[in-house]
Amino acid sequence: MSAPVIAAHGLTKRYGKATVVDGIDFDVAKGEIFGLLGPNGAGKTTTILMMLGLTEVSAGEIRVLDHDPVRDPLGVKRRVGYLPDQVGFYDNLSAFENLAYTARLMGISARERGSRIDEALARVRLSGVAEKRVATFSRGMRQRLGLAEIVMKRADIAILDEPTSGLDPQATVEFLEMIEELKRAGVTVLLSSHLLDQVQRVCDRVALFQSGRIVLMGTVAELARQVLGAGFVVEVEADATADLEARFGAIPGVSSVARIDVDRYRLTADRDVRPEAARAVVAANGALRRLSVDDPSLAEIYTRFFQKQASQEEGKRDAA
Amino acid sequence: MRREGSPWQGLGTVFVKELADHISSARMLVLEILFLLIACVVVYFAIDQIRQTTAEDPFVLLKLFTAGRSSLLSLLAILGILIPLVAIGLGFDAVNGEHNRRTLSRILSQPIYRDALLAGKFLAALATLGISLVCLWLLVIGLGIILLGVPPSGEEIVRSLAFLFVTLAYAGIWLALAILLSIVFRSAATAALVALGLWLFLTLIWPMLAPAFANVISPPDVRYLLVGVPSPNTAAWERALNSISPNQLYGEAAAALLAPEARAVGTTDYIGYLTQLQGAIRGSVLPLKESLAIAWPQTVSLIAGVIVLFVAGYVVFQRQEVRA
Known about the structure:
The structure holds two protein chains of two kinds. Chain A is of the alpha/beta class. Chain A has helices at 44-51, 73-79, 95-106, 110-123, 139-153, 169-184, 196-202, 220-228, 244-249, 274-283, 298-319, and strands at 6-15, 18-28, 33-37, 59-64, 80-83, 157-161, 188-193, 205-210, 213-218, 232-239, 254-259, 264-269, 287-294. In chain A, the strands form three sheets. Chain A has a six-stranded mixed sheet, sandwiched between helices. In chain A, helix 4 crosses helix 5 (139-153) and helix 5 (139-153) packs parallel to helix 6 (169-184). Chain A starts with 5 loop residues before the first strand and ends with a helix. In chain A, 40% of the residues are buried. By secondary structure, chain B is mainly alpha-helical. Chain B is 75% helix and 0% strand. Chain B has helices at residues 11-24, 26-53, 60-66, 75-91, 96-100, 104-108, 114-148, 154-184, 188-217, 222-227, 232-242, 246-258, 271-280, 288-319. In chain B, 41% of the residues are buried. Classes of the chains: A alpha/beta, B mainly alpha. The interface between A and B is medium-sized, with 35 and 27 residues.
């Protein structure tokens, strides 16, 4: 793995006595989509603002593309695109004019400006409304215009804060596709959200925030192993004379087998054991009717994690 | 710890954008039309009066600024009231407007410092005011030449240009105040109301309160009272207290520049009183240099006020959270 493009060590933000971000550590590798998850007020936006040098760091260190956002915010902001939560534009200006203003602030030369704006608007499918005033735009169009700004900037890192909250399902799907396009173009994406299924759909790795700390970090499968014990639940529906339960249990990686019905079994495993399960049924001369796997869902991990935590705390309280 | 990169990066861009916004905005259009209409009417009456009363005057064009049907209706007095309104109108939603439109964090995530945004906004609004004032100045001088048929002398031009500069500094104070309030208050309406409240207080209430405070701080001497003359100490306090109001400073500086007949700007420095003075010491005209020297302290105070208010806004803005 190449050197991380974002590296935070013991990053802390305090407002008076309240600690909003409490000594977090994380690295983001080049070209990945990294998700910041967590309930509102868990410190996601504050972390993002510290990355951009828009709010002061109380303790710890953060480096973005080898720049220190505290000392050299311009160096960071030249190469990082930011789409804030509920982005706003100048309503009296057209989409093109809004982008032209930020293009000038970015220092894009007058010669290049027009073509880069057109190109960016085409990428987010807003070319048709380039000359319309932003006042007439829907929420989804504004979000896409915000993304166009990042495309126009040719940013190395795109930081998107709650980009899909408040969008209708169709707009959400389109927006997530555009995020994946960004990734294909080699952009590192940092996505903050509380919408778990969307994060799961696009993110390579996620960090789960809770009251200022990162409590879990890794790929969804890793988190599932940590929280749910085993990551995969495979359901098999098959008829066989032989004892399928024992055969399934012998498959390496399977931690438990449950017979839910006469001909239905539920296997819990740390990986996808469908091929082995199929082979076992065939080897037992059985008739395989259905084979399905439940992907570990982030929502499940999330709820289970907080349940566990609550019960642990209760346990501690009882012990005390 | 030093930050890297120039604080001025993006200043020009912000300046041009804000200036374009101001000049094309409906708000500014209304304010400017009002401004010019009132100015024209006042100058017309001033010319009327000058025609009737003045036989010969070396500074007849300067009279356009100070004369009027009554002392309260001179161009100078009207400017003293209108300029704060226009300046507040330009500045009251400078920063909180960006907050409320949710454009602030997006703009600040571009490679510029906050310095550039704030300075650009201030300078653009000041330039807008400057443009309106230059137009007004040309209009007044032009009307004077056409309607009175007197060509302006060099000294008149210099004096009126100096007056223009002082007016701009006066406008700057109210603009800096409005921008400071737009940083402190998240709601544009609150900022506008507080600014207007301060304006009312400083222009209407403070001139009435200042003598009362002066009397409390330094009670008048009985010996002076018996003669019917104000005690020097009390008068000095009154003058010092009055100087808190930018309106007062502006009036004094403008009077020194526009009415060369006035010997000094003393305790009796209401514009209305000047007309009496003009009659009293007609003939003894102060040279330009002396007038400038008299107006200098007030001008410097006005500029200092602009800087102090702007710096206060700057400090608050630098420490403010950008999140909505």
